[in-house]
Amino acid sequence: MRTPALLDMVSATQLAHALTAHVARDLGVRSISVKGPVLAEQKLRSPRTSTDADVLVDPDRVEELVEALKRRGWEERFVADVPRILDNHARTLSHSDWPCDIDVHHGFLGFLAPEREVFEALWERRRTMLIAGRPVTCADPVANTAMLALHCLRELHVPRNRAELEELAVAWSGERGDLDVEDLLGLAARTGSVETLSPFLSRIGVDSTLSPFDRAGFAAWTLHTASVEAGRAAAWLAAIADARWRERPRLLAKAILPPAIEYRLEHPEIGPSRLDFTRAVLQRGVNGIRALPLASVQIAQARRLQITASSQRRTDSEPAEAAPRRYGNRTTPSSTSAKGEDRMPKSVAIIGTRGYPSYYGGFETAVRRLAPYLAERGWDVTVYGRDGSTKDDDAGIDRRVTTRVTRGVESKSLSTLTYGLTACVDAVRRKPDVALVMNVANGFWLPLLRGRGIPTAVNVDGIEWDRAKWGRLAKNVFKSGAKATALFGDELIYDAVEIARRWKQDFKRDGTFIPYGGDDPGVLPPVEGFPHRGYILVVARFVPENTIVEFLNAAETLGDRWPVVIVGSSGYGGELDEHARRLASDKENVSWLGHVSDDRKLFSLWQHAGAYFHGHSVGGTNPALVQAMSCGAPTVARDTVYNREVLEDTAVFAQPDADSIIQAITELMEDSARQEQLSAEAYERGRSRYSWEVVCAGYEAVLDAQIAKRKERGR
């Protein structure tokens, strides 16, 4: 008896494409081979080995093709009946003699138009090429661009997907007659993928008006892409929240303890014993619990998009005179409905930061992203700030955001309190629909807002009374402000799970977990004079709890071997600024840049650092750390519960003393493979868990909820 020849993966996937095309042709079923060797042939990505053959099939005839392949020995993989954020778009078949799978698609994720319309649009662009010596129908380069981009964007936390998206963008940067921007936009409009493709369109310099074909579908897409890590937890959470009360116990039980037969079929890697199954389910539970906080934020974002969808459908059904008015690329609601009822935009006052746009710290970074986000969605946004603290000539300023400057005492101990008071007094006079208040020191003034009927959401920041930079009086003020916040704040926002635990323990208050976000800057050139992976970086405000003293002492030694770049200052002058100045003067290898407000320069410093030291010890999720992760900085962090919550195992941890810092940084600087590993892992975690889209949507959901509660109380 002859032993069948074993197929290598490259040959197998090519033959699988050819086989599927042959079977489909015999049946008279229209099919299009997607991704795979076609992309390399069309020079949209480099050749690589795939583990499956993807084919998009006439949606009405998928069953025929699947059954025909089954008759040839292929078997359909089991798919568990569990909640999913994105519907199954393909049926996967495997064969005992083949190392690859065949994915028979009836749709392609990211195209929000009906599957039939999408298939017809792609079928019109069909071409024929030889794969394994057989004619195979495939799509043209423009259609394959859309599909590859959507495939990468769906799971952008995967390093390979990021690399392929960059490679695709490079292909579009050249002069190719078969790649036309207007053609791509036309296909995107027809297939309902303008908004899902928008990150890629932005990368190739295309500014497109964003108008989701299907807002509910885009809600699911956003929910999935925001964090694949929390995707399954978010799906279960959404299903349980949407179910009737009597159905929730059953769903909850299935989420906690899945049926053994189904779970084993879905996860054949689980060992045969009962203990193996128990361990797998326990690990599943641990992963689910870890993902729940982020999943909750994602659900809030999806709810917002779904509410927007309902509002859009109502607007579409109104008479023409009540239709939205378009200004540039933004649609603004008409101020009056067909019945003459006022439809004023919601208004929010943001209190407790240095203003907009400001580059001072974490609160200011959040406001730079949140204020334009809310304005784009029709909110009337007012940001209170301080004179001289903003960049009014900032190229990225959003003129729809109103800024108001009130008076205060400019000193380390009194500025937050005094500016917060005058801002609250001004807000009381103007009476916005809701106030977003930053910092518990402003908790003393919350009764003013409550007395005026203005609901509040308060970002409590960190545990300020634990910080070494404050004296006893200041610590008591912050602790008292926290008590006032717990008493008078309508909703509390925590940027870290550990912060939420402390507030629950100390003040018996629950709230909403919303972390900070980070921007993916793409690939940036190194800052002149600082070569890739050739220098040590620290970015921090000069305060004791940021381990600046210990790092500057360590830099005395580290600067003998490598360049050390110091970004930051105290903002008020003092001993730490003088130490940094003296160090930079005495050591040629040490550069003190002070405060860097140029994001592109700062992001490049993070991206190309050989070791980034993060010494923050209190304060929850630190915005600088999240941004460093999104830039792929190989990180040495002070070992704290907050830093471990954010980084998990994507960094090296050190104790707060010079010797420990020197040892950790030296080991990392001497290990280039470890540098690149930590860079990739930090980037993946940063993009999958800390997305500005999710963060801003979480804030909007909280603000909307407070307005709704106020209206409910007024009935």
TrEMBL record:
Superkingdom to which the source organism belongs: Bacteria
Record carries keyword Transferase: yes
Pfam entry (one): Glyco_trans_4_4
Domain (Glycosyltransferase subfamily 4-like N-terminal) ranges: 361-479
Keywords carried by this UniProt record: Glycosyltransferase, Transferase
Gene3D superfamilies, sorted: Glycogen Phosphorylase B
Protein name from the UniProt record: Uncharacterized protein
Taxonomic source organism: Rathayibacter caricis DSM 15933
Lineage: Bacteria, Bacillati, Actinomycetota, Actinomycetes, Micrococcales
